[in-house]
Amino acid sequence: MSTSLIIDSMEFLNTLDTMTTEAKCKLNNELEAMIDTHGLSAVISAISAVCDAKAQHIAENWQDESLANVWQEAANRLASDVQVSYRHVS
Predict the structure, then answer these.
(1) What is the mean pLDDT of the chain?
(2) Domain ranges across the chain
(3) In b/e form, how buried is each residue of 1-22, taking b as 16+ CB within 10 angstroms?
(4) What distance in Å separates the CA atoms of residue 82 and residue 77, rounded to the nearest whole number?
(5) DSSP letters along 16-65, please?
(6) pLDDT at res. 3
(7) Sign of the dihedral through C-alpha 32, 18, 1, 76
(8) How far apart are CA 44 and CA 82, in angstroms?
């Protein structure tokens, strides 16, 4: 795992720490509903696409290649996880 992804993961965890219990429950319920409706692979794939779009937007509009690379790496890892889960199911 790259240093930038570790740093980004820490920022994400800090964000979760500052969320209220009610907000965490709401987020969990929304994610569970999406997974129930669309399936885990589809939700992970959609999150991967969002990460990819964020990487492109940051690179094109903010010229922050380091941050864009963090988002791109997250997109790639999520996409890879979806492919692995499909292989295990097949």
Answers:
(1) 83
(2) 3-89
(3) eeeeeeebeeeeeeeeeeeeee
(4) 9
(5) HHHS-HHHHHHHHHHHHHHHHHH-HHHHHHHHHHHHHHHHHHHHHHT--H
(6) 46
(7) positive
(8) 7
User: CB under 8 Å to 54, separation ≥6 — which residues?
Assistant: 71
Is the four-CA dihedral 34, 15, 81, 63 of positive or negative sign? Answer: positive
pLDDT digit string (tens) for 29-73? Answer: 999 999 999 999 999 999 999 999 999 999 999 999 999 999 999
Per-residue confidence at 10, pLDDT binned at 50, 70, 90? low
d(CA 49, CA 47): 5
Hunting for tokens 């790496």 — which residue is that?
73
